[in-house]
Amino acid sequence: MKIHGISIGRAAHNIVADEGLYYTIQEVSGKLGIPIQKLRRWDQDGVLTAQRSFGGHRRYLRELIDRLAAQSISPDKTSKQLATIKKSLAEKQRIIQLLLDSEHRYRDLVETSHDLVWTTDPQGRFTYLNNAARDIFGLAPRDLSGRCFFDFEAGNAHIANRRFLALLRRNGEIRDYVTHVVTARGDSRWIGINARTLLDDNREIMGIRGTARDITEQHLATRRIEHLAMHDTLTDLPNRVALQTRIETSIPGGTPGALLLLDIDHFKYVNDNYGHRTGDQLIRGVGSALRDMMREFSGELYRLGGDEFAIHLPGCLRQDAIDVAERALDTVQHYRLQASGNRGISNLSTSIGIALYPFHGETVGELLSNVDIAMYQAKEHGRNRHVIFDRGSEAMRNTHKRVHWSMKLREAIDGDRLLLFAQPVVRLADRKTMHHEILLRLRDDDGKIVMPGHFIEIAESIGMIKELDMCVVEKLLLHMHHNDQIGRKLRYFVNLSRVSISDANWVKRFINMLSVSKIDPGQLVFEITETAAMSEIDVTLNFIRRVKDLGSRFALDDFGAGFSSFYYLKRFEVDYLKIDGGFIRDLASDGSNQVFVKALNDVARGMGKQVIAEWVETPEVLQILQDIGAQYGQGYLFSPPRLLEGKLDDGAVGDFSAA
């Protein structure tokens, strides 16, 4: 630092070797006119620092003192200027120290970071790497000098990395670039890179700098998630989503192809008799056998769920598809699974539907729907065969209807769009509500209510009625649990299908559900139609016995419709008879109906069974029923079915929302 052209600073050492170059403190005091005491204080404060002789005396550089004296600096002015110089020097020293501290912190952060920090020359050769290089490349930073990312690229990463460098030079910056490398130890790594070019004044690249991170775990996890999204977890075959994606890319190309849908026949028997674990083993085994078979063909095997597989044959014609289908039939038929207990499962069969595109579908949805129809036709024709989709057959239209309702019912069940309605059963003498019959409805996609006449018969034919029956009972039990009536509890009538009560496994689940429920079983009355009861008398008798053992009651619905023998009525230990509405509706205008209804009522009453007349719609019919001594009635004269919600009051239809 200079003042008036004279440099002022701290001495570099404390021992003066050449006394001829220095003044004593007394000489300086005389030359500058500054008291010795003040010079000593300046020395202590670092304003004008003296050096020490070998004897410990203060000595001042002659050149400095002579120049100060020549400038005739006054003591006060010199003191102020020296103080300013000291302050300026201290500030610069503080700034330098801050910069050094900042650099140390930065270096500590960089060297201890798990992310790789790197710089290269214009050709991409490393000029600096932090210690994370050991984890990324398996080498120390010094061993990587002059090398580059490309030296460690794995397999087909070469082309991608060259493209990375080209993009970087063109755009100046790249973020989140992923590349695959192999470390010096032979470990596979996926690396995420951020990079930016360094430019000189002429906009020429003088180097590259950036960061890199080991993202192997995240990358593999992402790929695993993507794999799971497109593959079946049981067989590891591509799933329905993968099939739809594949077909979406194949159909628009205009090249013909084929889709085969395979459904294992009677697979439910395996689950019911051997257990679901054995069923899973069977699916895995069949999938493996079909996968081996497909090595001989140009196509792809998929598992769509349950016992359904699909084969996509791009570029395949009709006869080629038939050949693959026949080979698949033979493969499944010859597969054998050794189940538990030394029991083997063999002689399997499958039903196969075939649809050709673009002839049988120009969209994915249309093609999948039509191949589904063809598969159902194969089952209807006797199973263990293949059927090619035929757009014009009557069987196709019927199958299409079943497929349509199968999908619609599945969506309704999964989407919780099953609705319970209730219609009161009243005591005819005073029109007081005694019971309620539960009636099933569906809420369609557009919000409309679908009546059971549209889907019950189809649900029975395709086996979905069992799931519907179970859902109805579950929903009713939940309603009863949350709306327990105070005092007198209402009794609910619930219809069950013949298909359901004929299934031993369904009955087992049903009985277990009622047994663990906290609902009073006496509040439940289960109905089955007379025709269904007569079709399998032993099954019906066994079911009635088990229901009544739980404490619930039983009703025979639509009684009289089948003109069944009164002899069997004695065998059915039912509590209620519900006279078929076909006899009740025309009761006022048909005398023969009056005779028949009176006979039914008298016989039932004589056997100790309560009678309920359905479809009571007019006052005239009500009067006739009262005249012949009927006890209960149900119909629109009293109330239409209304949505079940909230609590039901004694003797009133209320607390239902409008239908």
Outline:
By secondary structure, the protein is of the alpha+beta class.
Cα radius of gyration in angstroms:
47 Å
Proportion of residues in extended strands: 15-25%
- Provide the spatial order of strands within the biggest beta sheet: 18-19-21-22-23-24-25-26
Instruction: Write down the overall geometry.
Output: elongated
Instruction: Report helical residue fraction.
Output: 40-55%
Number of domains: 4
CATH homolog superfamily of the largest domain: EAL domain
| CATH classification class of the largest domain | Alpha Beta
Number of strands: 27
As for the CATH topology of the largest domain, it is TIM Barrel
Mean pLDDT: 82
The major beta sheet can be summarized as: 8 strands, mixed, barrel
N- and C-termini, Cα separation: 99 Å
CATH architecture of the largest domain: Alpha-Beta Barrel
Uncertain runs are 1-13, 649-659
Q: Enumerate how many helices there are, as a single number.
A: 23
Q: Structural class, please?
A: alpha+beta
Give an overview of the whole structure.
By secondary structure, this protein is an alpha+beta fold. The chain has 4 domains: 2-109, Multidrug-efflux Transporter Regulator, Chain: A, Domain 2 (Orthogonal Bundle), CATH 1.10.1660.10; 113-220, PAS domain (Beta-Lactamase), CATH 3.30.450; 236-391, 2-Layer Sandwich (Alpha-Beta Plaits), CATH 3.30.70; 412-643, Alpha-Beta Barrel (TIM Barrel), CATH 3.20.20.450. Helix 9 (267-274) packs across helix 10, helix 10 (276-294) packs across helix 11 (318-333) and helix 12 packs across helix 13 (394-414). The radius of gyration is 47 Å and the shape is elongated.
